[in-house]
Amino acid sequence: xxxxxxxxxxxxxxxxxxxxxxxxxxxxxxxxxxxxxxxxxxxxxxxxxxxxxxxxxxxxxxxxxxxxxxxxxxxxxxxxxxxxxxxxxxxxxxxxxxxxxxxxxxxxxxxxxxxxxxxxxxxxxxxxxxxxxxxxxxxxxxxxx
Length: 145
Fold this sequence. Notes:
single chain; 145 residues; mainly alpha; 5 helices; 79% helix
């Protein structure tokens, strides 16, 4: 199934489309912050001579901590007492999305500059992350909008 079809599935009749649109806008705002955290961390680590792949991993680790906090508290407004479940699913989906972005990053390095390759991987990561976390991690339809 194409990613856009999966995304549309998250906005089907079982979800309030207006609330989902607001949620997606908040997700995009957090995504911009995560992109900045990840990219700045990557750039700073590379500037001090840290290996390209170590820099990539560490920058995503910084981004995932930031992402979990803001997605749980602001985007999905999860007040459930399922912190461990949510954190584990979030980390699992981070790992899956990170793996996908790493493949894109490595492939792009053959054609594009390092920083552009990093941004390409980040874009793929972001789409995968939204879809998986919306469908599985923070899918409680009773949560506050």
